[in-house]
Amino acid sequence: MQVAGPIGAGTVPPSSGDAARRVADVWPGLRAAPPDQLAPLARVAARALGGLGAFSAGAGGLVLLAEGAGLVTGAVPEAGWLIACGLVCGALAAVSAGLARAAARMEAGRQDAGLALETLHKSGGETVRILAARAAFADLPADALAGAGIFERIHVADRPAFLSALAAAIGDKRERSVELRLRSEPAGAAPDFAWMEVRVADAGQGLGRAFWRDVTAAREEAERAAAAQAEAERANDAKSRFLAAMSHELRTPLNSILGFSELLQEDAAGRMDPARRADYARIIHESGQHLLGLVNDILDLSRVEAGAYDLACEDLDMNALIAGCLEMMALEAERRSVTLSSSMPAILPFLSADQRAMRQIVLNLLSNAVKFTPAGGRVDVSAGVAAGALLVRVRDTGCGMASADLARIGEPFFQAGDMDHRRSGSGLGLAVVRGLVDLHKGRFDVSSVLGVGTTVSLAFPLCGPVGIVAPFERPGGRTVRARATDRRRA
Questions:
Q1: Beta strand 207-214 with 194-204: parallel, antiparallel or unpaired?
Q2: Domain 230-301 falls in which CATH fold?
Q3: CB neighbours of 277 closer than 8 A, spacing ≥ 6?
Q4: Which chain regions cross the lipid bilayer (predicted)?
Q5: What is the reported pTM?
């Protein structure tokens, strides 16, 4: 039902019940009138406005009228006392239409951003017409893109998705969107694909209209953001693992030190058995040694990762260095009933390396191997030269590792194997080894079979003929101190 009154006019849906009551509730002063009575009001308003506008009784919606504007003074008796005063509803309709057009232009501009192609296609992908071509496609001749030209430039893996979107848009008249890879070069040229967002809409007559927008930069930005997020999550996870591992590694020896030192303190009178007292002192000493080793490993690892580890490179006799490390580990191997052996050539070339770092590498590998080898097992060290590199291998017959663990070997605090073995170490040893090997531009490899044993292989480049130490040594045998960052730049 259409209504009009002293301050307005409009339409009330028939389903609204009592129109007059509803209008009065919503807009006081507005009265309802049947459509046949509202028509004379429209004519009176049109005459009174003198061509300033037109009153459209069928415009629909609520139309505001300016009360007291003095434009209309006449009454329409047929409609009761309805005063035709106000503004033409066409004015608001024009404003509304203008806003709609502006919104449409904004949306078109948004969609047009990055538009590379606008094309018409048959359902089989054949290009019927090129409506617009920009960017890399602007300089191509029209016949290069017509027919199968565009379809052949779509990545083979993405062609089914394009055909599916095209057929669906033509079939049910609804717009489809798909992302695919497209190149501007012809088939056979070096592929340089760009990611395109393709919106496909029905164009009538069995054709589909496709809008190709380049989204390569947006995808790359999204990938960078995802990579940064993943890296942040990995860093947070590493921090959590570090804190958890440190709390365990520190708590265990500290509890031993505190507990056994309290027992000794309580025995001020000296009634404790001397053998037990000595055993308690030994445990305290070993716990302190463990803490010291843990702190040293953490400091070394932090310096390596920060590129601040000082290398004092000199010509090293690796035969003598490895033999010395075997002597240092002999007592621990004997205590665990593990056999230590070596397979070394009579002569090895000198290696330009940091003596302290190389000794730490070999000792950490031997210690790890002995620790994870059961009684009666063997640990063998071998060395040699191949492909211009000095090779060092440490092989054990220990518990071995599952293939899933191999990829993580060398990560700080990561320990492969069962929980019993994990409790016996911090997981920092191999992380330090890997970092020190990297500083020497070496290669670190691990192979292992669960229940059979593990082999750690190291390869250090020999920078000159066998037996000659070329880098980091000046005439006269003087060595050159180098930081980790210097080695990386060399």
A1: antiparallel
A2: Helix Hairpins (1.10.287)
A3: 264, 267
A4: 52-73, 79-100
A5: 0.46
